[in-house]
Specification:
It contains twelve helices and 35 strands. It is an alpha+beta fold. The strands form six sheets. Strands 5, 6, 7, 8, 10, 11, 13, 14, 18 and 19 form a ten-stranded antiparallel beta sheet that branches. The chain has an eight-stranded parallel beta sheet with strand order 27-26-25-22-21-20-29-28. Strands 4, 9, 12, 15, 16 and 17 form a six-stranded antiparallel beta sheet that branches. The longest helix is centred in the last third of the chain and has 23 residues. The structure holds (2R,3S,4R,5S)-2-(hydroxymethyl)piperidine-3,4,5-triol. (2R,3S,4R,5S)-2-(hydroxymethyl)piperidine-3,4,5-triol binds next to loops.
Amino acid sequence: MKRSVFLLSILVFCSYSTIAQIIPVITRQNALVFQVSQNKDVQMIYLGEKLANQDEYVQIPGLYNQSGDYTGLYNSAYTSSGTRNLLEPAISVTHSDGNNSLDLEYVSHDVEKISDDISLLKITLKDRVYPFQVTMFIKSYFAEDVIEQWTEISHQEKKGVILRKYASANLSLKSNAFYLTQYHGDWAKEMRPEESKLTHGIKTLDSKLGTRANLFQPSFFMISMGKPATEDEGEVLYGMLEWSGNFKIDMELDPQDNLRIIAGINNYASEYSLAANQNFKTPAFLYVLSKNGKGEASRKIQTWARDHKLLDGKGNRLTLLNNWEATGFGFNEQKLFAILKDTKKLGVDLFLLDDGWFGNKYPRNSDNAGLGDWQANREKLPTGVASLVKEASATGVKFGIWVEPEMVNPASNLYHQHPDWVIKQPNRGEYYFRNQLVLDLSNPKVQDFVFGVVDGLFTENPDLAYIKWDCNAVIYNAYSAHLQNKSHLYVDYVNGLYNVLKRLRDKHPTVPMMLCSGGGGRVDYAALQYFTEFWPSDNTDPLERVFIQWEYSYFFPSMSMSCHVTDWGRQPLKYKVDVAMMGKMGFDIVVDRLSENDLKFCQQAVGTYNQLKDIIWHGDQYRLVDPKSNDFASLMYVDSLKQKAVIFNYLVNNRYDVRSVCPVKMKGLNPDRKYRVQEVNLYPGTQSALDSQKVLSGDFLMRVGYNPRVDGSRQSVVLLIEEE
Ligand code: DGJ
């Protein structure tokens, strides 16, 4: 060992033994611990199971006999750049005098108790030379072990400072191996998982798409520590950014073999100029750690979402009939009046009118015209939207409508009247995604317009009961005619969107809204504060949906996932309905083309769903059999009192004689209670292959299990488990 390195190791050891301060964040099972070193660096020294004795956290760093840290910053809680740092920074700035250095030191911290469950730790840091501050915010949710972390950045320099990188959080994890589960995809191919062992260097998950930022990959991920976690075993961290725009998550396996996770807005083309005393707030990075596998982690996130984030997370949702797959753009008032009757006949709560109802000079008869002109098309709807709302109410159903208010077709009045409201380069040709362009939401006038589109619909139609908010284009040719600082666009766009959504929610707090983005291009927990549900994918082939919904379920509760029965896929109607049932069910079919039995089945299924939906929406979810490694999938939802549960089983392999050979072990029941298992949602005229008279103990059902008898003739089976 070189002498200098040897000396350094001793210094590092010494600095651990003379620690100035420990700052622990304690939740029900875990602890996140920061340390202020002697020279006032704030470091993250622990994320793991909490200790009985808080005084012992101080011992943790000294127990690692890793190679030296040349900087004292490898495990920095918020790594600055331009001075000692050698690794990926969390923050990088150019001061008003052109200097690029930053070295943040601890100033103070305090803890605010927001409620019995929620605490907010603030750690204030300042540069050692410049009047430049960062406050780290660590919001902890005790019951669910969830942490949200973000920063606020400000300064009092003479002129503006340029923020070149401004992450939300900077974690440092210790383990002998790290396995990353990430997702990739594209339209209709959302949420395809990949797992890999992280090697040294940086693995980045990012988006530069601006809007529908998750199209190729979302910011959600899992890190298993030591070995790949399973549903019930292993230490696993889930993370995701609460931001509906460009993100960047860097995972750096550092020279000491620790994993640094630096998560935030993507700084790509997004240098941000900050005036003196202005506050720059980064979005929250959300994470949760479980010692007991992916299942527990996802139940924590789902519970947290319902209790604290998702709009109306404890409330109700509306079942619906949508007309997109059934009619596309081709409808008129008469046809819609008939569909309203079908909605009633089907027994669902609401009819959702999709794309194609607006535009006159540029009628929206295909996706190449009309976006931006939000007046009802006079040919299709001569008496306007109001008559539809009225007719719906006369028919005994609610009415909802599709909008895509952030977008514009070049073939529209809006585009011609306000070319400066459109994101496009002034001196280059236009480039389209689905024949459309994105409006510049960094511009307050555009925000007013977008707000006005949706608010206007509510004002003109007070009974409007649902909005599907779509967003089909990415940002090409990023340029704002409005912004002085052109590189603020990606950030100001998203904040502009949140401004609009907040204004809408202040005025219309409870109306359910679906967050759609040509499929799952946009879902995240910042957006879900304003939306009751999201559209996971345009791919509604139920076989595909089993896989897509399975993966989303790690991060989002079932009540937030809109799942529609459509003509996609070759599976029987029952299979389609059973798959839609495990989320928030809807239909997008031509009801009057259903056979008598199909219609009867759907009607009965709506009734069955109404009885089961409380368990599905608010219960604990257990993934029992993984479709990626088995011939069938099995998912279970258990109510909080452990009195009732539902299990969905779906065959996912077409080969000869595939079937559920072994019993499926249930989870989440009370071992001491007795339960009756019966098959529900049977197709008219069919008999269950199961004996519904059998009563079995929770102990038996969880240790031995139960065979749903899924096979080629029973491709999907729904079981209801009720305490006797
Ligand atoms: C994309 C959505 O995902 C679809 O459900 C549908 O609303 C179309 N847009 C309408 O253009």
